[in-house]
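Here is one chain, start to finish.
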Amino acid sequence: MNLFTLVSGDTKRELRISFLQRKDGFTDPQPLDEQPESVTLRTKVNGTWIEREMEWDAANQEWFYRPQTSDYTAIPASASNYEMNFRLTWADGYQATAPTEGRDWLKVRSAD
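Its structure:
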């Protein structure tokens, strides 16, 4: 995962992510058969979980979250450690958690 630092109060950058799946141990990762109904960005800061709902960008097939000014108070740069994961929820209520380690990756880009 590439690390990045947002300047305090920066609300123009977006965190964008797409999820892939392996149908068996021998295939390359493929897009999900069915996109989840919602994705929650979960950040653990100094032992407390903070959750933010992400939005779906159908044109780019990505989930995104644009930090709000209040996030810089809730998730301060001075925190001693962070842990991040994503909770995916499908229409039938099934949930899964996607880590941000290993082969998973995050893509961050500026909003125009």
